[in-house]
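The aim of this short unit is practical: by the end, you should be able to scan a pair of folded records and say something sensible about each. We start with the first protein, listed as its amino acid sequence and then its C-alpha coordinates.
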Amino acid sequence: MLQLYFSPMACSLASRIALMEAGLDARYHLVHLRTKQVVDDDSDFHQISPKAAVPVLVLENGERLTESAAVLQYIADLKPDAGLAPRPGDPDRYRLQEWLSFVGSEIHKAFLFPTFWYKDDASLAKPRARIGRTLSVPAAHLADRKFLVGDSFTVADAHLTWALLLLGAAGVDIAQWPSLAAYLQRMQARPMVRDAVATEMALRRTMATSPA
Protein backbone atom coordinates (compact mmCIF):
# COMPACT_ATOMS: atom_id res chain seq x y z
CA MET A 1 0.00 0.00 0.00
CA LEU A 2 1.11 3.53 -0.69
CA GLN A 3 2.12 5.62 2.32
CA LEU A 4 1.98 9.41 2.52
CA TYR A 5 3.89 11.41 5.10
CA PHE A 6 2.04 14.69 5.56
CA SER A 7 1.48 17.65 7.85
CA PRO A 8 -2.04 19.11 8.19
CA MET A 9 -2.72 21.86 5.64
CA ALA A 10 0.86 21.81 4.39
CA CYS A 11 1.47 21.36 0.67
CA SER A 12 1.03 17.61 1.17
CA LEU A 13 -2.71 18.33 1.24
CA ALA A 14 -2.57 18.39 -2.56
CA SER A 15 -1.23 14.83 -2.53
CA ARG A 16 -4.04 13.69 -0.22
CA ILE A 17 -6.57 15.30 -2.56
CA ALA A 18 -4.97 13.57 -5.55
CA LEU A 19 -5.01 10.17 -3.83
CA MET A 20 -8.67 10.58 -2.91
CA GLU A 21 -9.66 11.87 -6.34
CA ALA A 22 -7.90 8.87 -7.88
CA GLY A 23 -9.61 6.46 -5.49
CA LEU A 24 -6.27 5.12 -4.26
CA ASP A 25 -5.87 3.62 -0.79
CA ALA A 26 -2.97 4.88 1.26
CA ARG A 27 -1.66 4.84 4.80
CA TYR A 28 -1.17 8.36 6.15
CA HIS A 29 1.60 9.27 8.58
CA LEU A 30 1.28 12.57 10.43
CA VAL A 31 4.46 14.63 10.74
CA HIS A 32 5.10 17.54 13.10
CA LEU A 33 7.20 19.79 10.91
CA ARG A 34 8.57 22.02 13.65
CA THR A 35 9.89 19.13 15.72
CA LYS A 36 10.61 16.92 12.68
CA GLN A 37 8.91 13.99 14.37
CA VAL A 38 6.57 11.35 12.97
CA VAL A 39 3.60 11.48 15.31
CA ASP A 40 2.85 7.74 15.03
CA ASP A 41 5.94 6.70 16.95
CA ASP A 42 7.88 9.91 17.72
CA SER A 43 10.57 8.83 15.28
CA ASP A 44 12.89 11.27 13.56
CA PHE A 45 11.41 12.37 10.23
CA HIS A 46 14.95 12.78 8.87
CA GLN A 47 15.10 8.98 8.81
CA ILE A 48 12.26 8.98 6.28
CA SER A 49 13.65 11.81 4.18
CA PRO A 50 16.86 13.81 4.67
CA LYS A 51 14.94 16.83 3.36
CA ALA A 52 12.58 16.58 6.36
CA ALA A 53 9.82 18.11 4.23
CA VAL A 54 6.42 16.84 3.14
CA PRO A 55 5.09 15.24 1.08
CA VAL A 56 6.95 11.96 1.11
CA LEU A 57 5.23 9.17 -0.81
CA VAL A 58 6.41 5.64 -0.05
CA LEU A 59 5.77 3.52 -3.13
CA GLU A 60 4.59 -0.07 -3.23
CA ASN A 61 8.19 -1.26 -3.68
CA GLY A 62 9.41 0.74 -0.69
CA GLU A 63 11.09 3.51 -2.65
CA ARG A 64 10.42 7.07 -1.50
CA LEU A 65 9.39 9.97 -3.68
CA THR A 66 9.53 13.61 -2.60
CA GLU A 67 8.61 17.06 -3.97
CA SER A 68 4.96 17.87 -4.67
CA ALA A 69 5.30 18.14 -8.46
CA ALA A 70 6.80 14.65 -8.70
CA VAL A 71 4.47 13.06 -6.14
CA LEU A 72 1.36 14.52 -7.75
CA GLN A 73 2.30 13.35 -11.24
CA TYR A 74 3.15 9.89 -9.94
CA ILE A 75 -0.24 9.58 -8.25
CA ALA A 76 -1.98 10.76 -11.43
CA ASP A 77 -0.13 8.19 -13.53
CA LEU A 78 -1.13 5.35 -11.20
CA LYS A 79 -4.74 5.90 -12.25
CA PRO A 80 -4.63 7.39 -15.76
CA ASP A 81 -8.35 6.82 -16.30
CA ALA A 82 -9.08 9.27 -13.48
CA GLY A 83 -7.82 12.04 -15.76
CA LEU A 84 -5.73 13.77 -13.10
CA ALA A 85 -2.96 14.50 -15.59
CA PRO A 86 -2.73 14.54 -19.39
CA ARG A 87 -1.04 11.45 -20.77
CA PRO A 88 2.72 11.57 -21.42
CA GLY A 89 3.30 13.07 -24.85
CA ASP A 90 0.16 15.20 -24.73
CA PRO A 91 1.14 18.89 -25.09
CA ASP A 92 -1.05 19.67 -22.08
CA ARG A 93 1.28 17.53 -19.95
CA TYR A 94 3.79 20.35 -20.19
CA ARG A 95 1.10 22.85 -19.23
CA LEU A 96 0.45 20.74 -16.16
CA GLN A 97 4.15 20.83 -15.27
CA GLU A 98 4.18 24.56 -15.92
CA TRP A 99 1.42 25.18 -13.37
CA LEU A 100 2.85 22.75 -10.81
CA SER A 101 6.14 24.62 -11.03
CA PHE A 102 4.45 28.01 -10.81
CA VAL A 103 2.47 27.16 -7.69
CA GLY A 104 5.46 25.51 -6.06
CA SER A 105 7.94 28.28 -6.73
CA GLU A 106 6.02 31.52 -7.12
CA ILE A 107 3.27 31.06 -4.52
CA HIS A 108 4.56 28.41 -2.11
CA LYS A 109 8.29 29.08 -1.80
CA ALA A 110 8.22 32.76 -2.69
CA PHE A 111 5.34 33.75 -0.41
CA LEU A 112 3.70 31.10 1.76
CA PHE A 113 6.90 29.56 3.10
CA PRO A 114 8.49 32.82 4.29
CA THR A 115 5.16 34.11 5.62
CA PHE A 116 4.64 31.13 7.91
CA TRP A 117 8.26 30.56 8.91
CA TYR A 118 9.77 34.05 9.11
CA LYS A 119 8.14 36.71 11.24
CA ASP A 120 10.29 39.82 10.80
CA ASP A 121 8.95 42.53 8.50
CA ALA A 122 12.25 42.97 6.68
CA SER A 123 12.23 39.36 5.45
CA LEU A 124 8.59 39.57 4.40
CA ALA A 125 8.61 42.93 2.62
CA LYS A 126 9.54 41.60 -0.81
CA PRO A 127 7.21 38.56 -0.75
CA ARG A 128 4.30 40.77 0.31
CA ALA A 129 5.03 43.29 -2.41
CA ARG A 130 5.20 40.60 -5.06
CA ILE A 131 2.24 38.36 -4.25
CA GLY A 132 -0.35 40.57 -5.97
CA ARG A 133 1.46 40.40 -9.31
CA THR A 134 1.95 36.67 -8.84
CA LEU A 135 -1.74 35.97 -8.26
CA SER A 136 -2.76 38.07 -11.23
CA VAL A 137 -1.33 35.33 -13.46
CA PRO A 138 -3.67 32.45 -12.46
CA ALA A 139 -6.48 34.99 -12.01
CA ALA A 140 -6.23 36.03 -15.66
CA HIS A 141 -5.85 32.41 -16.79
CA LEU A 142 -8.97 31.33 -14.91
CA ALA A 143 -11.12 34.25 -16.02
CA ASP A 144 -12.64 32.18 -18.82
CA ARG A 145 -11.98 28.59 -17.79
CA LYS A 146 -12.96 26.24 -14.98
CA PHE A 147 -9.66 24.39 -14.53
CA LEU A 148 -5.97 25.15 -14.91
CA VAL A 149 -5.34 22.56 -17.62
CA GLY A 150 -7.86 21.30 -20.15
CA ASP A 151 -11.50 20.78 -19.29
CA SER A 152 -11.25 18.69 -16.12
CA PHE A 153 -9.72 18.60 -12.65
CA THR A 154 -6.02 17.72 -12.55
CA VAL A 155 -3.34 17.51 -9.89
CA ALA A 156 -2.41 21.09 -10.81
CA ASP A 157 -5.81 22.13 -9.49
CA ALA A 158 -5.16 20.18 -6.28
CA HIS A 159 -1.92 22.11 -5.85
CA LEU A 160 -3.42 25.55 -6.54
CA THR A 161 -6.42 24.81 -4.33
CA TRP A 162 -4.10 24.15 -1.39
CA ALA A 163 -2.18 27.37 -2.05
CA LEU A 164 -5.34 29.48 -2.27
CA LEU A 165 -6.64 28.01 0.98
CA LEU A 166 -3.42 29.00 2.76
CA LEU A 167 -3.38 32.53 1.38
CA GLY A 168 -6.20 33.63 3.67
CA ALA A 169 -4.25 32.52 6.74
CA ALA A 170 -1.28 34.42 5.32
CA GLY A 171 -3.27 37.64 5.20
CA VAL A 172 -4.17 37.70 1.50
CA ASP A 173 -7.86 38.10 0.64
CA ILE A 174 -8.37 36.40 -2.73
CA ALA A 175 -11.70 38.20 -3.10
CA GLN A 176 -9.53 40.84 -4.77
CA TRP A 177 -9.39 38.43 -7.71
CA PRO A 178 -12.98 37.31 -8.41
CA SER A 179 -11.89 34.56 -10.80
CA LEU A 180 -9.70 33.00 -8.07
CA ALA A 181 -12.44 33.28 -5.46
CA ALA A 182 -14.94 31.61 -7.82
CA TYR A 183 -12.39 28.92 -8.73
CA LEU A 184 -11.69 28.10 -5.08
CA GLN A 185 -15.41 27.88 -4.39
CA ARG A 186 -15.77 25.37 -7.26
CA MET A 187 -12.85 23.31 -6.04
CA GLN A 188 -14.15 23.22 -2.46
CA ALA A 189 -17.49 21.96 -3.74
CA ARG A 190 -15.80 18.77 -4.99
CA PRO A 191 -16.56 15.98 -2.49
CA MET A 192 -13.00 14.65 -2.33
CA VAL A 193 -11.51 18.12 -1.89
CA ARG A 194 -14.04 18.95 0.80
CA ASP A 195 -13.36 15.70 2.68
CA ALA A 196 -9.57 16.04 2.42
CA VAL A 197 -9.63 19.60 3.75
CA ALA A 198 -12.02 18.69 6.57
CA THR A 199 -9.79 15.80 7.63
CA GLU A 200 -6.67 17.94 7.74
CA MET A 201 -8.33 20.90 9.42
CA ALA A 202 -9.52 18.58 12.20
CA LEU A 203 -6.01 17.20 12.62
CA ARG A 204 -4.56 20.70 12.64
CA ARG A 205 -6.91 21.72 15.46
CA THR A 206 -5.97 18.61 17.40
CA MET A 207 -2.25 19.32 17.04
CA ALA A 208 -2.75 22.95 18.06
CA THR A 209 -4.49 21.98 21.31
CA SER A 210 -2.38 18.94 22.23
CA PRO A 211 0.32 19.25 24.92
CA ALA A 212 3.77 20.16 23.57
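Turning to the second protein, read its sequence before its C-alpha coordinates, just as you did above.
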Amino acid sequence: MVADKANLGRVRRTGRRVGIAVYALIVVAVTAIWTGEILFAVFAPPVVAVAADCHAGTRRLLMAVRRARMAAATETGDERAALARFRAVLEPEWSTRTSLNAICQPDPKAQAALTEIDALRYAEEHAVRYEAVGLAPQRRRVQALYETLFESDGLPSPALP
Protein backbone atom coordinates (compact mmCIF):
# COMPACT_ATOMS: atom_id res chain seq x y z
CA MET A 1 0.00 0.00 0.00
CA VAL A 2 2.84 2.38 0.82
CA ALA A 3 4.49 1.38 -2.45
CA ASP A 4 1.26 2.17 -4.34
CA LYS A 5 1.12 5.69 -2.81
CA ALA A 6 4.74 6.32 -3.75
CA ASN A 7 4.10 4.98 -7.22
CA LEU A 8 0.98 7.17 -7.55
CA GLY A 9 2.94 10.27 -6.45
CA ARG A 10 5.65 9.53 -8.97
CA VAL A 11 3.06 9.08 -11.77
CA ARG A 12 1.41 12.41 -10.84
CA ARG A 13 4.74 14.23 -10.90
CA THR A 14 5.60 12.70 -14.26
CA GLY A 15 2.17 13.63 -15.63
CA ARG A 16 2.51 17.19 -14.36
CA ARG A 17 5.96 17.50 -15.97
CA VAL A 18 4.68 16.14 -19.29
CA GLY A 19 1.73 18.56 -19.17
CA ILE A 20 4.02 21.51 -18.49
CA ALA A 21 6.35 20.41 -21.31
CA VAL A 22 3.45 20.09 -23.80
CA TYR A 23 2.09 23.50 -22.77
CA ALA A 24 5.54 25.10 -23.10
CA LEU A 25 6.04 23.48 -26.50
CA ILE A 26 2.73 24.89 -27.74
CA VAL A 27 3.53 28.39 -26.45
CA VAL A 28 7.04 28.33 -27.94
CA ALA A 29 5.81 27.03 -31.31
CA VAL A 30 3.04 29.62 -31.62
CA THR A 31 5.36 32.43 -30.55
CA ALA A 32 8.03 31.34 -33.04
CA ILE A 33 5.51 31.16 -35.90
CA TRP A 34 4.05 34.59 -35.17
CA THR A 35 7.50 36.13 -34.75
CA GLY A 36 8.57 34.67 -38.08
CA GLU A 37 5.50 36.07 -39.82
CA ILE A 38 6.12 39.53 -38.39
CA LEU A 39 9.80 39.47 -39.37
CA PHE A 40 9.02 38.35 -42.92
CA ALA A 41 6.34 41.04 -43.27
CA VAL A 42 8.72 43.75 -42.12
CA PHE A 43 12.02 42.72 -43.71
CA ALA A 44 10.89 40.79 -46.80
CA PRO A 45 7.56 42.21 -47.99
CA PRO A 46 6.09 40.37 -50.94
CA VAL A 47 6.37 42.06 -54.32
CA VAL A 48 2.83 41.79 -55.61
CA ALA A 49 3.43 43.45 -58.97
CA VAL A 50 6.51 44.63 -60.82
CA ALA A 51 6.75 47.98 -62.56
CA ALA A 52 8.27 48.00 -66.04
CA ASP A 53 9.50 51.59 -66.24
CA CYS A 54 10.76 53.93 -63.54
CA HIS A 55 9.31 57.18 -64.87
CA ALA A 56 5.98 55.66 -65.89
CA GLY A 57 5.64 53.86 -62.56
CA THR A 58 6.48 57.01 -60.61
CA ARG A 59 3.95 58.99 -62.63
CA ARG A 60 1.25 56.38 -61.99
CA LEU A 61 1.95 56.53 -58.24
CA LEU A 62 1.45 60.26 -58.25
CA MET A 63 -1.76 59.97 -60.26
CA ALA A 64 -3.04 57.30 -57.87
CA VAL A 65 -2.45 59.59 -54.86
CA ARG A 66 -4.41 62.36 -56.56
CA ARG A 67 -7.22 59.96 -57.49
CA ALA A 68 -7.34 58.58 -53.94
CA ARG A 69 -7.46 62.06 -52.41
CA MET A 70 -10.42 63.01 -54.60
CA ALA A 71 -12.17 59.72 -53.88
CA ALA A 72 -11.73 60.14 -50.12
CA ALA A 73 -13.08 63.69 -50.36
CA THR A 74 -16.29 62.38 -51.93
CA GLU A 75 -16.78 59.75 -49.23
CA THR A 76 -19.87 60.55 -47.18
CA GLY A 77 -19.15 58.08 -44.42
CA ASP A 78 -17.04 58.58 -41.35
CA GLU A 79 -13.29 58.90 -41.05
CA ARG A 80 -12.70 55.15 -41.30
CA ALA A 81 -14.76 54.88 -44.48
CA ALA A 82 -12.87 57.75 -46.08
CA LEU A 83 -9.54 56.19 -45.11
CA ALA A 84 -10.60 52.79 -46.44
CA ARG A 85 -11.71 54.37 -49.70
CA PHE A 86 -8.43 56.30 -49.96
CA ARG A 87 -6.38 53.13 -49.54
CA ALA A 88 -8.54 51.09 -51.91
CA VAL A 89 -8.32 53.66 -54.70
CA LEU A 90 -4.49 53.67 -54.52
CA GLU A 91 -4.46 50.25 -56.14
CA PRO A 92 -3.34 48.83 -58.54
CA GLU A 93 -0.52 51.38 -58.91
CA TRP A 94 0.76 51.11 -55.34
CA SER A 95 1.15 47.35 -55.62
CA THR A 96 4.19 48.11 -57.84
CA ARG A 97 5.77 50.51 -55.34
CA THR A 98 8.25 47.99 -53.88
CA SER A 99 9.64 47.10 -57.30
CA LEU A 100 10.22 50.77 -58.18
CA ASN A 101 13.04 51.01 -55.63
CA ALA A 102 15.21 48.67 -57.67
CA ILE A 103 14.14 49.96 -61.07
CA CYS A 104 14.69 53.64 -60.20
CA GLN A 105 17.93 53.13 -58.25
CA PRO A 106 20.25 54.47 -61.00
CA ASP A 107 18.26 57.73 -61.28
CA PRO A 108 18.75 60.04 -58.26
CA LYS A 109 15.96 62.39 -59.35
CA ALA A 110 13.55 59.48 -59.59
CA GLN A 111 14.65 58.27 -56.15
CA ALA A 112 14.00 61.77 -54.76
CA ALA A 113 10.61 61.80 -56.49
CA LEU A 114 9.70 58.42 -55.01
CA THR A 115 10.65 59.64 -51.54
CA GLU A 116 8.53 62.75 -51.97
CA ILE A 117 5.60 60.81 -53.43
CA ASP A 118 5.75 58.39 -50.49
CA ALA A 119 5.73 61.33 -48.11
CA LEU A 120 2.85 62.90 -50.03
CA ARG A 121 0.85 59.68 -49.89
CA TYR A 122 1.18 59.46 -46.13
CA ALA A 123 0.48 63.17 -45.71
CA GLU A 124 -2.65 62.83 -47.83
CA GLU A 125 -3.67 59.79 -45.83
CA HIS A 126 -3.17 61.78 -42.67
CA ALA A 127 -5.14 64.67 -44.17
CA VAL A 128 -8.07 62.35 -44.75
CA ARG A 129 -8.29 62.11 -40.95
CA TYR A 130 -7.21 65.61 -40.02
CA GLU A 131 -6.78 68.98 -41.68
CA ALA A 132 -3.06 69.01 -42.42
CA VAL A 133 -1.57 72.51 -42.39
CA GLY A 134 1.79 71.46 -43.88
CA LEU A 135 0.36 69.64 -46.91
CA ALA A 136 0.59 72.49 -49.45
CA PRO A 137 4.43 72.80 -49.28
CA GLN A 138 4.72 69.03 -49.76
CA ARG A 139 2.54 69.25 -52.85
CA ARG A 140 4.68 72.09 -54.22
CA ARG A 141 7.90 70.08 -53.75
CA VAL A 142 6.39 67.07 -55.53
CA GLN A 143 5.14 69.35 -58.33
CA ALA A 144 8.62 70.85 -58.75
CA LEU A 145 10.23 67.39 -58.81
CA TYR A 146 7.63 66.19 -61.28
CA GLU A 147 8.33 69.10 -63.62
CA THR A 148 12.09 68.44 -63.58
CA LEU A 149 11.64 64.69 -64.00
CA PHE A 150 8.96 64.59 -66.71
CA GLU A 151 9.30 67.93 -68.48
CA SER A 152 10.04 66.29 -71.83
CA ASP A 153 7.12 63.83 -72.01
CA GLY A 154 4.53 66.47 -72.94
CA LEU A 155 1.78 64.93 -70.83
CA PRO A 156 -0.33 67.03 -68.49
CA SER A 157 0.82 67.13 -64.91
CA PRO A 158 -1.01 64.79 -62.54
CA ALA A 159 0.59 66.62 -59.61
CA LEU A 160 -1.62 68.38 -57.15
CA PRO A 161 -2.07 72.17 -57.27
